[in-house]
Queue: 2 jobs
Job 1
Amino acid sequence: MVELLYFAWVREQIGVDAETVALPANITSVAALLDWLASRSPGHAAALANRSRIRVAVDQAFATPDTPVAGAREIAIFPPVTGG
Amino acid sequence: MIAARLQSGPFDPAAEQAALLAGRTDLGAAVQFTGLVRADDGLAALTLEHYPGMTLAQMQAIAAEAAKRWPGVLGSIIHRHGRLLPGEPIVLVTTASPHRGDAFAAAQFLMDWLKTKAPFWKKEEWANGTTRWVEAKASDDAAADRWA
């Protein structure tokens, strides 16, 4: 099981700030995870529609589309950061 | 050594700088940057959301990178989260070094990386209840990329 965390408008569009999911065995990368997640609900699909506006951290380290997700405990999905 | 702190409450820039300089006579330059909530278009408030499990560690990593690049620089970075009003301070970067070049450069680096590599998101709020998430700026990415 992996804990998915959502922040900012990704959280608002999906409608929850976190969910625990069992990843299918064929979901091995961040890109595959986003494709799979987008099929879970209209909210997920809307939040993830434009992948260029989505950033991901795997176990609290910034990731890229090809970062492996097998064995990850926590995956966060959020817009580009706007702090400072 | 560059320290990092994450907090909801305000900070005191003068006290931060005084703490950095206390007992030191080898420092010839002290630089400080404060980022403030700007009331664009009648903005009523700005809420900073962050990633609790990652934010402080990421700020510490940014501080450590600056300390590695400018070994002679002392400093601290403080970033606030939560709902802030126009005019309130958001972020504070304080640096000091024997000569001004390193203190200026490290302060600029710290801000450029805080803006683009620390997991914060700003939500704008107006008096009529309208809200909008701030969009990331390409100019901020370009500023951070200068240091690559």
Note: Chain A touches chain B at residues 5, 7-9, 57, 60, 62, 74, 76, 78-84 (CB under 8 Å).
Job 2
Amino acid sequence: MNIVWTAVTLVALVALTVTQPQSVLTVCLDSCSQAVTTALGLMGVYCLWLGVFEVADRCRLVQGLSRCLGGLNKFLYGNVQKAAEQYISLNFASNLLGVGNAATPSAIAAVRELEHDEKLSRNGAMLFVVNATGVQLVPTTVMGLRAQLGSANPSDILLPNLLATLLTSIVGVALVFCVYGRAK
Amino acid sequence: MNYVVPVLLIAVLFVGLVRRVNVYDSFVLGAKKSFELSWTIFPYLAAIFIMVNALHASGADVYVTKLLAPPFKLLGIPPEVVQLVLLRPFSGSGSLAILADVYKQYGVDSYVGRCASVIMGSSETVFYVASVYFAGTKVRKTGWAVPIALFCNLLGAVVACLLCRVM
């Protein structure tokens, strides 16, 4: 991330300075303000979902979910601590249901349970790849935009989308297995 | 699909009531964590936004798109959606804006429009996710995780364009 960010930002800023030097500061400041508004917006979203998660946890609903996904979790992550496993299950369920906003706080919580080192662990990599290959079943945002712009059939992309998502997720998981080995 | 979230929320509250959990206290306790969470990811967001916006404002993204259009064409990705494929790993809102542009320019139900839909639906904002997920942990070396995710997104784009041809 350090190298990618620095290299790309450097190139972009040089290009921007050459083409329109007066807008460099505006762009940077606007970006930071955008980060403030986004972080505040996310805080609202996380507030709702973390609250609901806590209630679900106290109701022992999360344990139930965790038990349902036990086989899959065992295959992907092996034996992980209970807390991490519960967050992973929450994350998977949120992704599957298309509640993408709820997937982020649960994933962050899981990562915090899993990672204690500078180097990303195998299970952290697995969780990241599962999320970054989009296990979402129904692309609600895309379908909404299609409907809004007058598509004759907004949902006709469902099947190709599902196949593409499944394929990328399977390949992603397989690659993690190749690089990091089986779950312990 | 409109019922998923409402049913979920009602179900959680209902079970809480049945199992005699202090629903109100639990909600407040959980919600409290959101402040610390968004506080931690905020500087990472700022860094990502500076990179993406500078890239976009300088016009460097258009240049890179032009440069990469021929090799992407070899993979079966039409030039009209190359910008979407390239920006997608960096910015969710940015790529959504490009998706809307593609719809308006080439038609929602055209081949290009459908390709763009599936590309958008089957991919993720890899760099954004990486910076947010690992915010507040010690993780500095992400190893193969990001390359694997990027490769999968590219593969998804290739497969999306292929599937839209036959489906």
Note: Chain B touches chain A through 92 residues (CB under 8 Å).
